[in-house]
Amino acid sequence: MTGIGSSSVLTEGIRFSEIERCVPALPGIYEIYKIDGQSLKVGIGINLRKRLIQHRKSRQSRLILKTGGSWNDPADVRSAQSILAKHLYFAGYVDGYDLRSEAGRQAFLEERCYIRFRVTSSREEARSLERVLEASGDFPFQGRVSRSFRHS
After folding, report:
1. What is the pLDDT of residues 15-32, one digit of tens each?
2. Cα 73 to Cα 57: distance, rounded to the nearest angstrom
3. Residue 104: other Cβ atoms inside 10 A
4. Which of 49, 43, 25 is nearest to 87 (CA)?
């Protein structure tokens, strides 16, 4: 991501268990990848550490079913904390992990994924970088949640 307009550099990959030690409580952009290199999600945070911790927790209690809705329909479920949790929930089973469960999502993120991040001068700068990366089409977990995630 160097050269897109920020003076700070994208980090090497870190594990989800390294967030507290490596990620500052500053604005920035993050990218999440599977260990095989497949990109999953790009996002921003006014406090990167807090945002990534929310993703790591992937709480089932923060996935909320609308009244009369179905857990099988992405339109009936909203995420009150981490849209990544909802994307993973509807991906189902990936690499042997049951992503419909909180424990499965947490294990998948720690064991099969890594994070790269960049501190930015502002949320606006991070959002500008995010738009460019989302437009590339390389990150399947963006926008509306669907059941169409393809994994290697």
Report:
1. 999 999 999 999 999 999
2. 22
3. 19
4. 43
The Cα–Cα gap between 148 and 120 comes to 32
Q: Per-residue pLDDT tens for 44-54? A: 999 999 999 99
CA distance 14 to 16: 7
What are the distances in angstroms from CA 41 to CA 7, 67, 122?
A: 22, 29, 20
Q: Which two tokens stand for residue 37?
A: 């290199």
Dist. CA 9–CA 74, nearest whole Å: 35
Closest CA to 80 of 61, 99, 98, 67: 61
Query: What is the DSSP secondary-structure string of 110-134?
Result: HHHEEEEEEE-SSHHHHHHHHHHHH
